[in-house]
């Protein structure tokens, strides 16, 4: 991979994963105000915020379907769009509230969701999601203890979102499935002349040396304190730390949850090369090149990145699914991008 290509990818990966909603807010609100001044307001059509009125071209069922699709596929993890009201005027205008902002969206013909950059046909999108789910379930080998490997880069925004989605799944199924957090590692040949900025020895991470060190730090926590303690650490780190403050932030978290930070840093110094080599070999074995990559019984999962979707995929790999699989987890989705 050339330096120019690599630098372009790095910049692309650092874009805000919630960019869709920022763009949608600006464009949709502009359209909304145009309609407002033309006299096509929600109030003028007799819409009450708490009492929804059903139109033939804008039924309550189609509106709820659109909101459900948005919340499962487009919003930032941990957030959701909520319905305020809707009105039919040539197309279906749906007024939503998202993260404190009122955002209108457009639904045409009951199934075409109009976005700033394209149109999503809900029928086709839902069909593709169902087909991916069926394909995965047909390929995955069923075992008594499914093996689950989530490969991430510790500061890839998409990898962090997937890790957040996996944490409640780990809490639910940790005694039933072997769930591991693994890391995407690249060879130093990809960073010729910039090894000090990205690499420890022969192994590197896309977003720089702080990410490479954090990958090793998390591996040290898992190896010295176990996966439960790693997940406890990740719960806080994913919420609180950034790549620029990770050295201080990680130390504070470790001290707060009972991890000896000096012991971990000693482990990083002594084992970085060996741990990174092991991760790199796993990457090569499974053909992993991007963050996140989820493997369940060595089959790549490509479906939705929600706790509920992750749980269902893992549960489909059991010979006999445990009772925990009957529990419902959150279904707010992560952004569909990948760092690679």
Strand order of the largest sheet: 1-2-3-4-5
Principal-axis shape = globular
Write out the CATH superfamily name of the largest domain.
Answer: Glutaredoxin
Q: Which bin fits the share of residues in helices?
A: 40-55%
**What is the makeup of the main sheet?**
5 strands, antiparallel
Q: Could you say which structural class the secondary elements and strand pairing correspond to?
A: alpha+beta
Q: SSE order in H/E notation?
A: HHHEEEEEHEHEEHEEHHHHEEH
- The CATH class assignment of the largest domain is Alpha Beta
> Could you tell me the strand content as a percent range?
15-25%
Euclidean distance between termini CA atoms: 11 Å
Q: Give me the number of helical elements.
A: 11
Give the name of the CATH architecture of the largest domain: 3-Layer(aba) Sandwich
Uncertain ranges = 1-56
Q: Mean pLDDT, as a whole number? A: 82
Any idea how many domains? Answer: 2
β-strand number: 12
Radius of gyration: 23 Å
Task: Briefly note the CATH topology name of the largest domain.
Answer: Glutaredoxin
Short synopsis of the structure:
The chain is of the alpha+beta class. 47% of the residues lie in helices and 16% in strands.
